[in-house]
Amino acid sequence: MKLMPVMTTSFLMAVGLSNAPAEPLDWRFRSDGTISYLDQGLEHYFGENGKPVDYVKAEHYFAKACEVNMAAGCWHLGYMLKQGEGMTKDPKRATRLFDRSCSMGYAPACNDLGVQFEHGHGVKADRARAAVLYETACEGKDGNGCVNLGLLLTTTARTASETARVRQLFETACVLENGRGCDRTAQLYFHGVGVEKDRLKAAELWERGCAFNEKEACYRLALVSYRGWGIEKDRAGAVEHFDKACRLGHAAACGDLAALYRNGDGVKKNKRVARRYAETACALGHSRACADYGLSEKNTR
């Protein structure tokens, strides 16, 4: 199936407030021509440019970037604190950093601050405040903000206009190359929720979402390819999509691949490969894969 055209969007990093220390417009370099604190933090965080992954150094440089009002530095530091990467989890401090970064106009931080308020992480839960923050993030072209606002509104959507608003948010996220947005939009078309049922369009949207490495989109694309729902049956293509979803960490996809290889369904029967996929599925928490192969989730990790 031909992939839908992908619309490219810019991903701009905010560099701070007007009263911030003099930093060049190119956030990668300081005024003396050396690499910025933010970029050094990213190199150590991701292990780029010959540097090993080092969360301690990444934390140091993100903190320095935040000190000079580089919004993305505050956000990255907040994310590390939220996840407990290289340090003890500190949701309250993470919330403060997201708040600071969001106040400087950094959309991803507004989204993560919204998540904190929606779920009461490091702050008292406040769904109304979360909705405002998600909308701010979405308006700042952060796809996750659009999706999260749509999901929040889904819980109260009753009228046609409210359902249309949810769909518009998911569609906006998909245009912003957010795979979750494509997946959610596809589900609406597949089931005919607020729109005329269109399984071909759903499959196209799942293909788009899978191209953006959204595991749920890859998994659902595999299912419709395997069953021929809205598109021609394609067992070989289904195996490819299951495999990608599995590599992205989708437990059920790994479990389904184990069954396909065990039974020789769409692929050559291979018990060794089947067991390998089952072990991966079990490690990801797929209880049936654990049971079918007599595996222990603890021992497969």
Give the overall silhouette: globular
User: Could you give the count of β-strands?
Assistant: 0
**Largest sheet properties:** none
Question: How do the helices and strands follow one another from N- to C-terminus?
Answer: HHHHHHHHHHHHHHH
Structural class: mainly alpha
Q: Report the total helices.
A: 15
Low-confidence blocks of residues = 1-27
Termini, distance in Å? Answer: 36 Å
Strand content range: under 5%
Mean pLDDT: 89
What integer value in Å does the Rg equal? Answer: 22 Å
Helix fraction, binned, reads 55-70%
Written overview of the protein:
- α4 (91-103) crosses α5 (107-119), α8 (160-175) crosses α9 and α9 (179-191) packs parallel to α11 (215-227).
- 62% of the residues lie in helices and 0% in strands.
- The chain is globular.
- It has 301 residues and is mainly alpha-helical.
- The chain has helices at residues 37-46, 55-67, 71-83, 91-103, 107-119, 127-139, 143-154, 160-175, 179-191, 199-211, 215-227, 235-247, 251-263, 271-283, 287-292.
- The chain is built from 15 helices and no strands.
